[in-house]
Specification:
Elements (H helix, E strand, L loop, with lengths): L4 H19 L6 H10 L4 H29 L3 H17 L6 H14 L4 H25 L5 H24 L8 H13 L4 H6 L4 H28 L8 H4 L8 H25 L9
Helix pairs in contact: 1-2, 1-6, 2-5, 2-6, 3-4, 3-5, 3-6, 4-5, 7-8, 7-10, 8-10, 10-12
Length: about 290
């Protein structure tokens, strides 16, 4: 297992948050670091979408922390009531991503604020919000995730495997467990559903997105032909009405005719996929 970009970016964001705490009076950088860890996601769009909710959560947590700390700081019963209210409100507002950070900010204020509760609450609001923003900036500028290239890299592995699978099924007449191949294609198709925000943000070429969609659908079509051929070979007999095949065609030869048709469809589809793949503008590598 290697250290990926997300791990490195998370650590970098934490380091920046700690340094940020040195310059912000009344902050150790701890809350900023916690917020950065929670906010960091695999892609900038995921971090941004969840970061928005966590900013709202920070505000809710700071507000509840301030009000409850005015009543009595550190009281376990009040803390329990506050947690219930925060979770309830976040669920009502459909801010489920904000629940964790809201509770963390609330607990920080309730357990650690002393004389100047307002100032402490404001600082918790500032450093937690700063942690979210730092995570977003690091995710965008450091080793930026390129969603289309990532999907092409995964597709490259399938493109390398498919010729061998086709050869084994069609020429060597081997029965292969093709369910795993189907799962790989479906997973690839799901990852290829890149949201419009990512396409604009990363300036992805829409023609390459369309090309990738056509390649994936082509691979799925080939898989369906391969499955049909394997099932046909495993069928012991096929009933065919005499008026359909006529006297000139023997019943036992019909499966071979059908298999040959599917073979031609596979070769035709594979050649089209190869042309699409060879003309792509994105350089793909096997991951």
């Amino acid at each position: 297992m290697k250290i990926g970009a997300r791990i490195f970016k998370t650590a970098l964001a934490v380091v920046i948050c700690i340094y940020f705490g040195y310059f912000l009076k009344g902050s150790s950088g701890f809350m900023a670091a916690v917020a950065a860890i929670i906010t960091m996601q695999g892609t900038f769009s995921d971090s941004f979408n969840k970061g928005k909710g966590r900013l709202f959560g920070t505000i809710i947590g700071a507000l509840f922390g301030y009000v409850f700390a005015l009543i009595l700081t550190g009281n376990p019963i009040l803390i329990g009531i506050g947690i219930i209210l925060i979770i309830y409100i976040c669920n009502i507002l459909k801010w489920r991503n904000a629940i964790v950070i809201a509770c963390v900010v609330f607990l920080s204020i309730m357990l650690e604020s002393h004389d100047n509760i307002l100032q402490y609450s404001v600082f918790r609001l500032l450093d937690t919000s700063a942690g979210i923003i730092i995570a977003l900036l690091v995710n965008y500028f450091v080793f930026p995730h390129k969603p289309l290239e990532a999907v092409y890299n995964e597709c490259n592995r399938l493109m390398e495997e498919f010729p061998e699978v086709i050869d084994k099924v069609l020429n060597k007449k081997e029965n292969l467990p093709l369910e795993g191949l189907y799962d790989d294609i479906i997973n690839l198709r799901e990852k290829a559903l890149i949201n419009e925000y990512d396409l604009i943000l990363h300036q992805e070429d829409e023609r390459e997105v369309k090309r990738l969609d056509n390649i994936i659908e082509g691979l799925l079509t080939i898989y369906e032909h391969l499955i049909f051929i394997e099932e046909l070979r495993n069928t012991k007999s096929i009933f065919v009405p005499a008026e359909i095949i006529g006297d000139a065609v023997e019943e036992r030869k019909l499966p071979d005719i059908i298999i040959e048709f599917h073979k031609q469809q596979i070769y035709k589809k594979w050649n089209r996929i190869k042309r699409l793949w060879d003309n792509k503008r994105i350089k793909a590598r096997t991951i």
